[in-house]
Fold each of these.
Amino acid sequence: MNISNVNLKVLVMDTDYYALQAVNSYLAWDRRTRVTFLAESALDMWAELDRTPLAELPDVVIIDADHMGGPQALAHAVQRLRGRIPNVMVICLAQLADPALVEAAANARVRGYLLKGEVRLQIAWAIVYGINHDFIVTTTIAKVAEGMFHHRIFHAKTLPEPRQYPELTDRIRQAIKLCVVEGMPANLAADEMGISLHTIRGYIKEGYRIMEAYDENEYPVDMTPQERAFMRFTAFADEAPPDEDDEAEENGKKPKS
């Protein structure tokens, strides 16, 4: 994958301030996603969309499904978003797996229904994964949906597992998480881990080497090692290409039964 080939403008709406900031920080690390606005309520979201020029409207809107006012209100919000931005990709984030909301989202043809506690710092990878699939879900949503007789839910794609790096020890992984994911200065991370500054720098260097060895993606030449490390650390495991049903849905054709 050439990372430079994806460039998505993203609006995020979440009533939880801390969740909103977390999603913003995770998306900011990934150059494929550019956050254009953070809305703490549906009213803020609509006000922003009303004043945004056509050329600057988001490609992706992430909405807090739990606080849209129930299944009917969620469906209406998605319909309204499509009226403003015809080709928008809508992704629902939620704290809980509510079957009624999942079904409403599927009927409204959102691109994904994801639990915050499962997607977490892989949100940018989830958005990009959604480009090639009709409907994506996290693991718990997939389990809840097993008894739901709905075409899109039945054929939903569960997000892949995180990419595995067998050579990353727990200590190296902890150093990468502190210094790369959380952005902690090396000296503070060293204190947190009870090791020397020299040792933690060695962990980081080794972690970068290991992750690079497992990654075939192409990155912009001006991307920093820290940016690349974040993307590699949060990447999904490699997966097979989209199946025939996905390709048929994207082309507006009826999938094979």
Amino acid sequence: MNELGMGQAVNQALREEMARDANVFIAGEGVGVSIHDNPMFPTWGLLEAFGKERVRDTPVSEAAIAGLAVGAAEAGLRPVVEVMFSPFFTLASDMIVNHAAKLRYLSGGKSSFPLVVRIKSGSGFGAGCQHSHNLEAWAAHAPGLKVVMPATPADAKGLLKSAIRDDNPVIFFEDMMLYFAPGPVPEEEYLVPIGKADVKREGKDVTVVTWSRMLWVAMSAAGQLAADGIDVEVVDLRTLVPLDKETLLASVRKTGRLVVLHEATRTGGFAGEIAAVVMEEAFSSLKAPLRRVTGPDIPVPASPALESAYLPDEAKLTAAIRSVIDHLY
């Protein structure tokens, strides 16, 4: 095992897939210049390794980047393009949602449209609302897109390699606050399947379902509550679409309680989809009403103090967990 940050793990995945398949190339704003001249960043050193034909710096136009990806995929290549911040997905969404997500369907499944859109996401670095709004639920709502949100370096590497090999468009969200957080990554070749959740912590009293950076909030809260005899099971979805209902429902049926945790705003957030699935398919197993712990329905503040208050944290999560544990039924 190697200890790598998520940025390094993504870099390894890109290097390995570009070496394996000459049709894989990367493009985006600054992917080959000094803005990313740091070994912890995902595209570090790739220009030197693969040349300017396969590492393409683009104009500052997310719509153009997305159009490049769709056209290249139609031509038989496997583009991996970068959108620098999650809110900028709105600028790329015409080509991604109206074209990439629908072209395989329109071909009757006869054609493949393999492309990956890497999107930097997450709050906590004071960049303000136009750079920090989490939009994974928007992507998940578009039929034809797969949506991946890893929380660990090992999952990031294995899932990105699977995404690059997939014949469908994949939206791959990377929380920037995880780029520098180290974790074990296998040295040997491996893939992590898209559409398979992972139980990161076994428990019997309550299920916490989460993804991306909020996994670490859930793990911390679970450790704190263990001292009080509350046994929390933590399910890391890893992939929102396709959703691993089997793992989700099995955990809820075991514990009888559910709290869903995500950083994105509450209304229309993906927690609502998880809640609906559980209510439709595992209602009889619930011992208490489920709870959502999310960001509030406001733009992400730029002020460090306000941004800290915006983010879901261990205190908010433990309060929600205690409320479902203490519920009388």
Amino acid sequence: MKRISTLGLTVVMMLWGVAAQAVELMHWERLPLAVPLVINQERVVFVDENVRVGVPASLTGKLRVQSTGGTLYLRASEAIAPTRLQLRSVATGEIILLDIAATLGDQPLEPVRILKNAQAQVTEAESSTVPVTERTPIPVALTRYAAQSLYAPLRTVESLPGVRRVPLKLRTELPSLLPIENVSSTPIAAWRLGDYWVTAVKLRNRGSARVQLDPRQLQAKLFAAAFQHAFLGPVGSAEDTTIAYLVTRGAGLEHAVLLPPVARGAGDEG
């Protein structure tokens, strides 16, 4: 029963950090984007292309700006009144405007990812075979969307055109999924994009020993698999529960797992 694409191991590495820090999405539509800062806390801005940053002279000594590989690192050392920065694309010369302001605070701000119109506009027909970016395989994009939908704030969930939530056909525990571990496995949600399904399965440790999670131990015909966290802590601890994301192709999870036999009534005969 066990068959998992090596893509599953890649997805695992991508997901372990999803819950730790969400990313706020901002769409550049030729209107200045407001990016607030907290004094003495660095904020990261992903632009996805190399840019040169135009910083007003009034911010000298107040704002540290570093730019590398399409990522900006902004850190204010004192209060800054609303001020505009210009980001100029090295490749095209296009300008993106950021309105920053720095104030005191103790809550860290989420990183920002700036999406341009071309990145955000994908037709419904294209979306069944192409994820948000052509570089991202559909199973990876679908799994990331599921993880964000369950863990991240709604405003930070990255758009994935064509994806839809589908009804669960499995709602009971799946004892055959991880038979060698003392772990309960219960499906909680499922999504579909094109020919791929991803089912989120809640895993909970029933024992007192820590359980190291390995997608190769899953007993199912899966295209890929990933865990939100790398391990389960002992039962009763804050780490005793996590989510497994199980990707199937051509059908949902109900066709990929070995289901327990249906209980027969007392009057049933062979």
Amino acid sequence: MSLRLAPTLALLLTVLTPLAAAPKKFFVYFGTYTGAKTESQGIYRSRLDLATGRLSPAELAAPAKDPAFLALHPNGKFLYALDESSGPKRTPSTGLSAYAINPATGALTLLNQQTPGGPGPCHLAVDATGQTLLVANYSGGSVSAISLQPDGRLGALGSVVTHTGSSVNPGRQKAPHAHGIYFAPDNRFAFAPDLGIDRVVGYQLTPATAQLTLLKSGTGVPPVGSQSVRGAPPMSVTPGTHLPPGSGPRHLTFHPTGKFVYVINELLCTMTAFTYESAAGTLTSIQTISTLPPGEAIPKGTSTAEVQVHPNGKFLYGSNRGANTLVIYTIDEKTGQLTYLENVSTLGQTPRHFALDPTGTWLLTENQDSSTVAVFRVDPKSGRLTPNGPLVAVPAPVAAVFVPALPTR
């Protein structure tokens, strides 16, 4: 049975269709932190050579404040960035930025800015039709939907859904903290891991109007009175798929077949596997496994961050901050269950993010506290990683997005 393409890979292949051949290079845009402790000035850009894995020195692509996560439009022409430090005390019309991408030079041109709909945005994603941008607001414990214009500009704020509830960790889970937002492969549903309430919250999206509707846990049917939109009263507890108490779900990824979902849990350093029933948008837990070597206790100061599945569907990767490692699992493609393979060093400190290039040949780790990016070659048969070339300096890197680069003459 053939695999369904992973959303990111499918998006990039769509972008590549007009080109005479698959590109030999990608622009890689890095989101960063720009606080007083770093030298970063905004979004940086490098070129990745697919043949050699060489990553060119990073250069500033656009000045920006704390562009801690980036998202690419399905047509590959526009890039979106958030300002993680934005909140009620900042200018109301800022917090999100839209950029036009020059496919020949990689230059970014600011189009406009808009509110993220809540304080502390931390993650964003564009739906497959290119009509809606979704944002997870960590500090606000909410998810927002913003309309997108045909020219790539940010339009009006369509809806905001505010989560409610808490969980068992008094230091991190006194309130909701939406930490990511992801579209299902068929674009009908979106899912937000909420670190504060130990749930993955599901939504139905109407892209044409940027409207979100909460899904009832287990059925995919919108519950009555569950939506906190445009001032409507919130529920006492937001519905969603439960994880073990204290897990702190952070990010998730879909398997290329669309049958499985993997959630990385920040606080307990675990990975939870789910089966996914696409008709109703239902997640069913099948396994929870450590992101550390078998039997190893969680070292002080260690927490997880990013998770991605390889485009071939055979391997899953997750990052451990503090331990500064990537965990690698093999995936049983029939059951979705994981088998631990190994942990490898990220060659830097605090891997807040890592990214597989769309071909699955190279993996880049964004090491926030050492201000470096490491490139690894991926073995497509074993999933193992081999360091490739020197580290590349990028100030406080925390996100990466790949965009095909037109051939230079």
